[in-house]
Automatic annotation (TrEMBL):
Residue numbers binding substrate: R201, D325
Catalysis: reaction(s): L-homoserine + acetyl-CoA = O-acetyl-L-homoserine + CoA
Keyword field: Acyltransferase, Amino-acid biosynthesis, Cytoplasm, Methionine biosynthesis, Transferase
Gene it is expressed from: metX
Pathway of action: Amino-acid biosynthesis; L-methionine biosynthesis via de novo pathway; O-acetyl-L-homoserine from L-homoserine: step 1/1
Species the sequence originates in: Ilyomonas limi
Record's protein name: Homoserine O-acetyltransferase
Basic and acidic residues composition bias: residue spans: 352-368
GO BP annotations listed: homoserine metabolic process; methionine biosynthetic process
Region (Disordered): 345-368
Similarity comment: Belongs to the AB hydrolase superfamily. MetX family.
Summary of subunit composition and partner proteins: Homodimer.
Ranges where the AB hydrolase-1 domain occurs: 40-329
Active site, UniProt feature: S135, D295, H324
UniProt subcellular location: Cytoplasm
Length: 368
């Protein structure tokens, strides 16, 4: 594993018309590229993850997994706007000599993909054998497969969509509202809006999970309060929401959360390309679309749309209690489908072919 910083010392124009004087990207590579450059895998991370998929996708990436560095040359880039090494709101603006903070420009998923192209060339990558990503990572994957139809041999978009839905935008805008109503948000400080972000994250969890997830893992009350009078009891579900907000606040900031969620809202592969359907029809890569049955944020209907318009795409829906987070946690089932799709070329496992299992402690790996 090797994490590096790629510097692009040229002006970078965004869809908005704004121009950055320079750009840098944090990226991690695993394994080595073979002589004919035919073993490249590009992994796209979701909203608050980083460039090391071994940390947030350990069941799929690393020794002994499907994406084994002994077999593949794996690349993962921290998306611009994040706080894990790439150009982001807490970085210093070279023009002003001050941190961007609220003045950071909007990166759409299309901007992000365009930012990755110079890195791809720097790494000497001519062809990507497999592109894979879930959620916002899947959005970027679709955008790139449309922009450069000859680049990918196989793509696996998971729990994602071709255009962000009004439902998804509503969730994101409500979360940003929480941040904006934090009295500290107006401050030019790294921790500005962090209290609002904690609440935003608790809202996000409701969209990442599912009724059954909470029913199976958050029933009842905390052990130290269940014997108290009813008005003094504290439910596990309540403490879990607080826990998730505090957990994210230890590793993320409200500025990145704000701008990345806004970038997700602007995702639309059909923008400037006649229509979403027309854009998807330009994809030439062999495509396996994976959905999660209980996903309420990116429901299976959105993956069905992708599969309907990408030529010869295959579609599988994985049954899961985990909701949207199933794309991170159902790695055993995803591996089976990847082996079928990439390894042998056989049709994927039929829909409903995996028994649903109750949530387990692995759900804490969530990095959406």
């Amino acid at each position: 594993m090797e994490r590096q910083i790629f510097k692009y010392n040229q002006p970078f124009e965004l869809e908005s018309g704004e121009t950055l004087p320079e750009l840098h990207l944090a990226y991690t590579t695993f394994g080595k590229m073979n002589k004919d450059k035919s073993n490249v895998v590009w992994i796209f991370h979701a909203l608050t993850a980083n460039s090391n998929p071994v940390e947030w996708w350990p069941g799929l990436v690393g020794e002994g997994t499907f994406f084994n560095p002994e077999r593949f040359f794996i690349v993962c880039v921290n998306m611009p706007g994040s706080c894990y090494g790439s150009t982001g709101p807490l970085e210093v603006n070279p023009t002003t000599g001050k941190r961007y903070y609220h003045h950071f420009p909007l990166f759409t998923t299309r901007d992000m993909v365009r930012a990755y192209k110079p890195l791809k060339e720097y790494l000497g990558i001519d062809k990507i054998h497999i592109g894979i990503g879930g959620s916002m990572g899947g959005q970027q994957l679709l955008e790139w497969a449309i922009a450069e139809p000859e680049l990918f041999e196989h793509i696996v978009p998971i729990a994602t969509n071709a255009q962000h839905s009004p439902w998804g935008i509503a969730f994101n805008s409500s979360q940003r509202w929480c941040i904006h109503n934090d009295a500290t948000w107006k401050n030019e400080a790294p921790d500005a809006g962090i209290g609002g972000m904690k609440i935003a994250r608790s809202i996000a969890l409701l969209s990442y999970r599912h009724y059954e997830t909470y029913a199976a893992s958050q029933q009842g009350y905390t052990s130290d309060t269940e014997l108290l009078p009813v008005d003094k009891q504290v439910s596990k579900a309540e403490t879990y929401q607080y826990y998730q907000g505090e957990k994210l606040a230890k590793r993320f900031n409200a500025f990145s959360y704000h701008f990345l969620s806004l970038g997700m809202d602007k995702h639309n592969v059909g923008r400037g390309r006649t229509s979403v359907q027309m854009a998807l029809s330009h994809i030439k890569a062999k495509t396996l679309v994976i959905g999660i049955s209980s996903d309420i944020l990116f429901p299976p209907a959105e993956q069905e749309t992708i599969a309907a318009y990408v030529p010869n795409a295959q579609l599988v829906i994985i049954d899961s209690y985990y909701g949207h987070d199933g794309f991170l946690l159902e790695y055993e089932s995803i591996t089976q489908h990847l082996e079928s799709f990439i390894g042998s070329g056989k049709p994927p496992i039929p829909k409903g072919g995996k028994e649903m299992k109750p949530p387990s402690p692995k759900e804490e790996l969530s990095a959406v």
